[in-house]
């Protein structure tokens, strides 16, 4: 007997302009094709926060849950980004406040969503599950409010099949968005104990969650291969993301470019840098520190479609990530956007070697991985010199393995993994 209904609980859902919405929207499309009845619970903040209307979601049954959280108050000031810039998180009091709203029980009271959001989600979700008591429940993190709603509904309707999705690690040892680790782990274990399946975006995150649950499955983001467009005239290295304080640093790239300039192996009129994102001032300052601000075009915050267009026109897309002992596989949504552009990806990993990142680059021929902890700047300079030379002499750039991506990383194939062994009600 196939389950014929699904209840999706997503604070982050279009038209909110956030990279987390892409995963939720893509899977909503697959759920819509898989079940006879689909209902989506999201937040009323979708009406006031920065919007991205590139996803067609109007045909879904969507109920916004009344929300009054820190995003609500910020939305009244019409922010241009879902993210707070680094200065907004500086200072001891502000850093403690950020940790507090991610720590139980404050994450359910004043974090994203909040008590009214959770209460109404359980109320409306119950009405739906009264009609579909064996439905799928699919909730996403962040925020924890989504999982809190799902847990209460699962307890009330035990024949449902609850899948808890994690875009990020529940307890992140790199950013440490919690006040007390043991306290938070106990809360996580309790709330997730009745989930039927936990899914994450990478093996590294899955490994961190296996102590909480017996059934953890890696489910990467899907890739949409985009049509090719003419590339910029000069060899262009673009970064369309955030810096997250000092955790993501493009300095090795800038040092490598200066090595090539000093040796006169590239000229300034042959190369350019582009940045698009919320940290334009910080990125520009880093570039200026290396004497390369004349090569930078700082576009600041741009719409999603404009960011994708920049990626598609750039010869090389820069990916910044981290890896620490016990926490690898930080595969940002930006990586999958870059794959869709099909051009060379230069990945700078701040920290230890990450086998998952290496395997992905080898399997899909994504480009070059540079580890700041042990790879030399000269090695990176050699890669850049070779790519610039190929563009100047042959108007060619290295590209990803499109066939391999299409065969294994489509959203449809990822969804099939999501629902494997879950169609028979318990």
Question: Could you please describe the fold and organization of this structure?
Answer:
The chain is an alpha/beta fold. It has two domains: 5-222 and 411-419, 3-Layer(aba) Sandwich (Rossmann fold), CATH 3.40.50; 235-405, Rossmann fold (3-Layer(aba) Sandwich), CATH 3.40.50. 40% of the residues lie in helices and 16% in strands. It contains 16 helices and 13 strands. The protein has helices at residues 19-34, 70-75, 92-100, 106-109, 114-131, 144-156, 181-192, 203-209, 251-262, 280-289, 304-313, 333-341, 355-364, 377-394, 402-408, 411-419; strands at residues 5-9, 37-43, 61-65, 136-141, 161-166, 197-200, 216-218, 235-239, 271-275, 296-298, 316-323, 344-351, 367-371. The chain has a seven-stranded parallel sheet, with helices on both faces. Strands 10-9-8-11-12-13 form a six-stranded parallel sheet, with helices on both faces. Helix 5 (114-131) runs parallel beside helix 6 (144-156), helix 9 (251-262) packs across helix 14 (377-394) and helix 11 crosses helix 12 (333-341). The protein is globular. The termini are close together.
Topology:
Elements: E1 5-9, H1 19-34, E2 37-43, E3 61-65, H2 70-75, H3 92-100, H4 106-109, H5 114-131, E4 136-141, H6 144-156, E5 161-166, H7 181-192, E6 197-200, H8 203-209, E7 216-218, E8 235-239, H9 251-262, E9 271-275, H10 280-289, E10 296-298, H11 304-313, E11 316-323, H12 333-341, E12 344-351, H13 355-364, E13 367-371, H14 377-394, H15 402-408, H16 411-419
Helix pairs in contact: 5-6, 9-14, 11-12
